[in-house]
Amino acid sequence: MRNTVLFILLFSTLNIYAQNKLLITYNLHYKPSKDFNKFEDESFYLQIDTNSKTSIFKSIGQFKADSILNGSAIINLSFFKTNQSRFTNTIFYNYSTKILGEDNNFGSQKLKYEIENFKILWDLVAEQKTINSYKVSKAECELFGRKWIAWYTVEIPIQEGPYKFKGLPGLILQISDSKNEYNYNFSGLSKNLDLKIISPPSKIITHKEFLDAKIKLKNNPYSSIPGFEILEGNIKKTIEEKFKMKEKLENNPIE
Question: Distance between CA 183 and CA 30 in Å, rounded?
Fold first, then answer.
């Protein structure tokens, strides 16, 4: 009898999450610079479509910016002061085909790559605690040159999480690197909220070409400014100083 009740409860839980679109919100507390002991916060959407078995992960600030560019939101003067995001990329995942994609802006271009059979090698740890009333279990992995500690819950039986962290037996509610420089925390879940998370059209390239484009832009950030090569005097000097400071303030990327 007890086993029957447990099966019914588990089936009901799976059924609830299998029939709904989910919008999950995460807060990231992170250290953007190696040179300054300063932390910042940013919020992200993870939208999961259980029908198509796909997900999209995007900063809320960039989501609003893309909505404006697409004409689905109204611009006001305070927008760019309050919604600028350091995270302009979008992460796409199909947990049926295991294909992970990422797009980002490179100057005037938006580029995108896809990786087939994306998989993280997780170590499941026999340790549990509670987060936001959910019972969570511990897991660890090494990725992007960092060691990560994750806490996931089988009460939400979806193998998803923030950024590119996927593949655990339940939704990741918290994950941080061992130095605690990047710390994602679950902050909310909505069902049947069909938010249109838009990403402008991208040019599809290989993963290597994507990484090469990042290096090229880092080595020559002025290439993203039309006509920079013909600028002279104080204007050019001011732009160069701004980019140098920007690089110093953002020299601790997640990967």
Answer: 6
191 domain-assigned: yes
In-domain check, residue 152: no
Residue reference for tokens 């938006």: 110
Q: In whole angstroms, what is the distance from residue 121 CA to residue 168 CA?
A: 10
C-alpha 36, offset from chain centre: 23
Q: What is the pLDDT confidence band of residue 69, given thresholds at 50, 70 and 90?
A: low
Question: The domain containing residue 33 runs over which residues?
Answer: 2-119+185-249
User: What's CA 80's distance to the chain center, in Å?
Assistant: 20
DSSP letter (8 states) at residue 67? H
pLDDT digits (tens, 9 = 90+) for 217-237: 887 776 666 555 555 666 666
Q: How many domains does the chain have?
A: 1
Report whether 45 contacts 188 (CB < 8 A). Answer: no
- Kindly report the pTM of this predicted structure: 0.83
Closest residue by Cα to residue 243 from 229, 215, 223, 226: 223
Residue 179 lies in a domain: no
Beta strands in 109-163 (DSSP E): 109-115, 123-131, 134-143, 146-153
* Domain presence at residue 52: yes
Take residue 24 and report the two structure tokens written for it: 């999950």
C-alpha to C-alpha distance for 10 and 155, rounded to whole angstroms: 9
Query: What is the rounded distance in angstroms from the CA atom of residue 122 to the CA atom of residue 151?
Result: 12
Name the β-bridge partners of 131. 134
Query: What is the spatial distance between Cα 179 and Cα 252, in angstroms, rounded to a whole number?
Result: 12
